[in-house]
Amino acid sequence: MPDTGNTFFANTLHFPVYVMAKPVGALCNLDCSYCYYIEKSKLYPQGKAEKMSVGLLERFVSEYIACQPTSDVLFTWHGGEPLLRGLDFYKHALAFQRKYAGGRHVDNSMQTNGLLLNDEWCRFLKENDFLVGISLDGPEHVHNKYRLDRGGKGSFSRVMRAVELLQKYDIPFNTLSVINDYSVRFPEEIYAFFKQINSRYMQFSPVVERWGDRPDGLELLSAFDNGRKGEMTEWSVSPRAYGDFYCRIFDEWIKSDVGRCFVQLFDAVLANMVGKFPGVCIYARTCGHAGAIEANGDVYACDHFVFPEYKLGNIRTDGLVSMMLSDRQMSFGKDKFDTLPRQCRRCKYLNLCNGECPKNRIVISDDGEEGLNYLCEGLFRFFEHVQPYMEFMAAELRAERAPANVMNHLDEIRQNIHS
User: Fold this and answer.
1) 334-365, pLDDT tens digit by residue?
2) From residue 312, how far is each of 204, 307, 322, 325, 367 by CA, in Å?
3) pTM for the structure as a whole
4) Are 66 and 100 in contact (CB under 8 A)?
């Protein structure tokens, strides 16, 4: 193991510590209009893109494995565009994982725009059992609205070639789609498109961004920059439209796709209804166990809080455990619930939402308190719409039956709704 100074590896928690790795930081071969991460290069000297060194990679891999309290370890490679670091880098990563695994089972996932995928990359990903997330917003007119390259050209056809390669090599993949002011208008078309390309695991991420003026040169504000003047970006989704988007996708899903297609929000709601971890931090009661490491070793509280005030330290001088289990980080995680406004605490859907992601808590509640989630209206609308169906599925789960049975009882549930 590389020299780690006085680092203490013992993890006293009962859940894994996740640290999303960004081996090229914000460097990307696309220039998506809505991307919140491209500007993070401004946090570094002259805005120069930095790539993680092999030496730092070894330190990260060894510490990350050692600090896990479970026998399973998941590495998540993100960006920017992580494939820009090159295939040899990830071959080194796998070699270090084998070196430091200590009998643990190690998995890898990669989030990519797919533009650099080729046969060589796909053989590597397949041989090493990578789970791949493809950034794809929907059909061509939806995807190309904002996901442009640096020459201003749409990237849809190139991403679709990547999807075809993944299918050719039988590599499991899911899709990550950004819901913006344009895409939110086409829920049924988007859902049908993903079914058509055999994406069975779908995640939809809403754009909620504010322009502002920060002293560090960043133009997008954090959720806690409420004292600074800011305005919503033109591509941010409206709360009501966001709720309608999910309601309309749910109506398609509930007809025939339960147990066949998996939508992250639907899974999270069902898990919360039966008292299980929702599988994603934004709908959990607390957060703070999922940080991000930049190419130079800087560690931040969260991928969505890469701002100087949320920097926990640097892996070269501070151990991952000491950073991720610090009082500061634990408070960050607990604040997710502890700082909820009264409007949230009174809400009948609090156990399903838990205030959603802190990054979106930028509006004033009906009581005049800061910290209400921007998406609240839409989320409430969605929970109201799906509650009867989710209650049926939750009851099936508790009875150790398949939630997919709901598809055989839709008329009955709808009659009860209207009775």
Assistant:
1) 999 999 999 999 999 999 999 999 999 999 99
2) 28, 10, 9, 10, 34
3) 0.93
4) yes
Handedness of CA 141, 142, 145, 149 (dihedral sign): negative
Q: What share of the chain is helix, strand, coil (3-state, %, to 5)?
A: 45, 15, 40
pLDDT of residue 16: 76
| 385, two tokens | 């719409």
Q: What type of residue sits at position 144?
A: N
Q: Give the tens place of pLDDT for each residue, 3-39.
A: 443 333 444 556 678 999 999 999 999 999 999 998 8
* Dihedral sign of CA atoms 53, 54, 60, 63 in order: negative
Dist. CA 351–CA 155, nearest whole Å: 39
Kindly calculate the radius of gyration of the chain based on its CA atoms and give it in whole angstroms: 21
Distance CA 282, CA 250 (A): 19
DSSP conformation class of 261: B
Please classify residue 311 by burial: count the beta carbons closer than 10 Å to its beta carbon, then call 0-12 exposed, 13-18 middle and 19+ buried: middle
% residues pLDDT > 90 (the chain): 86
Give the pLDDT score at 418: 85
Distance from the first to the final alpha carbon of the chain: 66
Mark whether 88 is an active-site residue: no
Q: Whole-number mean pLDDT of the chain?
A: 93
E strand map for 195-340: 201-206, 210-211, 231-232, 262-263, 290-293, 298-300, 311-314
Looking at 181, 303, 335, 411, which residue is catalytic? 303
